[in-house]
Amino acid sequence: MQENRRRTFSYTIWMLGGCYLIYLAYTLFKSETALTGVQLAFAVLFALVGLFFAVSGGYRMWQLDKEKKEQQKRDEKASSDGTDENE
Predict the structure, then answer these.
(1) How many CB atoms lie within 10 A of CB 11?
(2) Dist CA 53 CA 11 (whole Å)
(3) DSSP line for 21-55
(4) 10-43 pLDDT, tens per residue?
(5) Interhelix angle 37-86/2-29, nearest 10 degrees
(6) Going by C-beta distance under 8 Å and a sequence separation of 6 or more, which residues neighbour residue 25?
(7) How much is the pTM?
(8) Which residue among 15, 38, 56, 66 sits deepest, i.e. has the most Cβ atoms within 10 Å of its Cβ?
(9) Sign of CA dihedral 53, 10, 64, 19
(10) What is the pLDDT of residue 87?
């Protein structure tokens, strides 16, 4: 159980970090001054890395939730199988 909490926290940090990088890229693109080549390259890099982190963190959290639900179903089935044998 403790491992799942750490993993969930880690994936949440990934998603928040990704969103922050996307925000930085957005502010670079929306800046009032013209972008230099280096700024443009970093804006694109921030957007791509941020998108990867946000999507990857969300997908992994979804997988973790899916595994948790499957484990609960297996546990319920095992407990119901155990009570049926005793009756």
Answers:
(1) 20
(2) 9
(3) HHHHHHHHHT-SSPPPHHHHHHHHHHHHHHHHHHH
(4) 999 999 999 999 999 999 888 878 888 888 899 9
(5) 160
(6) 43, 44, 46, 47, 50
(7) 0.75
(8) 15
(9) negative
(10) 45
